[in-house]
Amino acid sequence: MATTTVKSSLPAGLLPVVIAFLLMTTPALYVTCYIVTADVNVRTCASVSCDYITTIPSGTDVFIYCIANGDDINGDSQWDYVGYSSDNTAVGYVSDFYVDCGGLCPGQSC
């Protein structure tokens, strides 16, 4: 198997500075939100007919990775694909109706 070496045209020591700058100025891929109403069911897709995974208790912080259109819940058809475990590796869809992002909910589609 052949290997390829890539050389940077940046002066020595500048690459870490460029990486740090990009990390500080690139928008986050997720935003912390807060479940504000009653306990909310987590599902495998953006529909109440999708498989149930678990229930997130009211008041739990979640991370929203992306949004999807789905079943209309009380006038809101947006669903959020969230991470909800302590390390955010447990994921699933919750109705956006139950999530308060303070106006910061991400706009990228799943």
TrEMBL record:
Membrane spanning residue stretches = 12-37
Query: What UniProt keywords are attached to this protein's entry?
Result: Membrane, Transmembrane, Transmembrane helix
**Lineage: superkingdom:** Eukaryota
Q: Any keyword Transmembrane?
A: yes
Tell me what this protein is called.
SH3 domain-containing protein
Query: Taxonomic lineage per UniProt?
Result: Eukaryota, Viridiplantae, Streptophyta, Embryophyta, Bryophyta
